[in-house]
Specification:
Layout (H helix, E strand, L loop, with lengths): L1 H10 L3 H12 L6 H19 L8 H22 L5 H9 L2 H5 L4 H20 L8 H36 L10 H15 L13 E2 L8 E8 L26 E4 L1 E3 L5 H9 L9 H5 L4 H7 L3 E6 L13 E3 L10 E2 L2 E2 L8 H5 L6 E6 L33 H28 L5 E8 L4 E2 L5 E2 L9 H4 L3 E5 L1 H7 L3 H10 L1 E3 L3 H8 L2 E2 L15
Parallel strand pairs: 2-9, 2-10, 4-14, 5-6, 5-9
Antiparallel strand pairs: 1-15, 3-13, 7-8, 10-13, 11-12
Helix pairs in contact: 1-3, 3-8, 4-7, 5-9
């Protein structure tokens, strides 16, 4: 029975690994036949060594039932979307909401789960397993089995060490793809870090003060945090399709062409862009236990409001006023299934603005282009590019359908941004107004077999890390802040920036003086 389980895991649940190995070997010259034959033997032996300690009575069936069920889901996600289950992906899973989780359900995944998860588990529960009569015999048999596995592994290493070392050295992600050890190890790392105390709460910019000119108008800033928008599909950045038809009419609008995200998932990118920690040093646990740039602005007298339509602000907004859009409590015409169109966020803006006449910053966290159900992100009236992919198993749509659907989400977000700019224009006589839009991360749409996002940053494609960032400033804001828009436009074309620049750029736009402000990171400072 143990050998059968080893074989099932080494073959069925590691199909993505074998596909990867096939591509690797196919591009190698002079590969030894013995090396190829040894690969499944090596994996079966390694899994047997790991699994055998869990084959005791009372542990065997529940343990492997759980592994069958979890491995079925992991294999499907890896095989269909190219997902890698590292620590960040486990964080995404633990922090997801019901609406996002159900968006991945479709007939393909249900059938796969039934046949590779539920069915093997059911058969395992029904089969009668004969265990050794005594504990001594049981331990002895298992030690012999584990020792035999080690002998096989050492024998393979003796004959083919150079081949394994070469393939492993040039394809370092392979060992992180083996199921179930990949998600078990990553899950352990996430849970371990979750329960480790992050230490004392860290305040940031406690010396902050804001320079206010009483002769100038108060300021309204709309900060729009996008979801899953990639720069490659922005007409403002050279894309051939009309995905920015609504905002291209604004002369004061500037699009930055070379912007890198902090992560490839919302759980990392959103807290990172508001944090004073840079991407390379960012720690999500520390970020949750630290103040961010919004806390600094709030402390210096800026009236803040966070409007949430993407399932959560990842801890960024927990110390400022927040409105969570709930599909069950919102306008039914703008909500569908477990989510609402971003247009619902446009309601009651006048009420928020007219609440007082002071400086205010409103953050809009969009649902944007969240997949895989891209077709649910825009109303029927915004189905501009056709035919579309109106299903969640996007890998079964044609590439044309998928791109059309995704481009519709980008175009709809552009519509939302244009409405927000129009609203700011309405208040130009009473306020100096500004809008900043930036996406949290990009998206893969089948390029190189990858879908969605969440690929480890060091191997992630540009589609997942190259994001749009645009600014719009009213003439009054430009004048009061003494900003040279021609200079800024030139920088937007030629300068490479990232989420690391958001922290100091926001402080600079609000004239905040603090030791944590870095002028070099402020994308506006060189044009003032």
């Amino acid at each position: 029975m143990m050998l059968m389980i080893d074989v099932v895991f080494a073959t069925l649940f590691n199909i993505p690994v074998w596909m990867h190995l096939f591509n690797i070997i196919n591009n190698l010259d002079g590969v030894k036949l013995g090396f190829i034959i040894s690969l499944p033997v090596f994996l079966i032996s390694a899994l047997n060594f790991v699994f055998t300690p869990f084959s005791f009575r009372y542990i065997f069936k529940p343990f492997f039932c759980i592994l069958f069920i979890c491995s079925s889901i992991v294999t499907y996600a890896t095989m269909k979307y190219g997902v890698q289950f590292d620590k960040t992906m486990m964080q995404n899973i633990f922090e997801t909401n019901a609406g996002e989780m159900t968006s991945y359900f479709n007939m393909s995944v249900v059938l796969w789960f039934l046949f590779t998860g539920i069915l093997p588990c059911g058969l395992l529960l029904l089969v009668n397993i004969r265990y050794p009569e005594t504990w001594i015999k049981g331990i002895t048999y298992r030690l012999i089995s584990m020792f035999a596995s080690l002998l096989i592994i050492f024998a393979i290493a003796f004959f083919f060490y150079k081949d394994y070392a070469s393939v492993g050295r040039n394809n370092s992600s392979l060992n992180k793809e083996i199921i179930p050890t990949n998600y078990i190890y990553s899950g352990f790392k996430y849970v371990r870090d979750f329960f480790v105390s992050p230490g004392e709460f860290r305040q940031t910019g406690t010396d902050a003060s804001r320079t206010i000119n009483e002769k100038q108008k108060p300021v309204i800033m709309f900060l729009v945090v996008g979801e899953t928008a990639r720069s490659q599909n922005y007409a403002l950045n050279g894309y051939s399709r009309g995905t920015n038809d609504f905002t291209k009419k604004y002369n004061e609008l500037i699009s930055f062409h070379n912007v890198q995200s902090c992560g490839t998932s919302t759980a990392i990118s959103v807290p990172c862009m508001f944090s004073d920690m840079k991407r390379k040093e960012f720690n999500s646990r520390k970020a949750v236990n630290s103040e961010n740039v919004l806390d600094i602005l709030y402390r210096t007298g800026v009236n803040l409001l966070w409007i949430e339509n993407d399932g959560g602000c990842k801890g960024v907004c927990k110390r400022i006023p927040t409105i969570n859009i709930e599909p069950s409590n919102s306008d039914n015409t703008l909500c569908k299934k477990n989510s609402c169109y971003d247009e619902v966020m446009l309601k009651n803006i006048d009420e928020y603005i007219n609440n007082n006449s002071e400086d205010k910053l409103i953050v809009f966290h969009l649902m944007g282009s969240h997949g895989p159900t891209y077709y649910l992100r825009y109303p029927e009236s915004h189905k501009y590019f056709k035919p579309t992919c109106d299903r969640s198993d996007i890998e079964n749509c044609t590439h044309e359908q998928l791109i059309n659907t995704y481009d519709n989400t980008i175009r709809y977000t552009d519509y939302i941004i244009s409405k927000l700019i129009d609203k700011l224009i309405e208040y130009k006589d009473e306020y100096d107004t500004v809008l900043l839009y930036v996406s949290d991360h990009g998206e893969s749409l089948g390029e190189n077999g990858l879908y969605l996002h969440g690929t480890p940053y060091n191997v992630a494609p540009a589609e997942q890390t190259h994001v749009p960032l645009i600014t719009w400033m009213s003439p009054g804001f430009v004048s009061s802040k003494k900003i040279d828009l021609n200079c800024l436009s030139e920088h937007a074309l030629n300068r490479t920036v990232s989420h690391d620049n958001i922290f100091s750029s926001l402080l600079g736009l609000w004239n905040v003086n603090t030791s944590v402000y870095n002028k070099e990171d402020d994308i506006i400072s060189s044009c003032r």
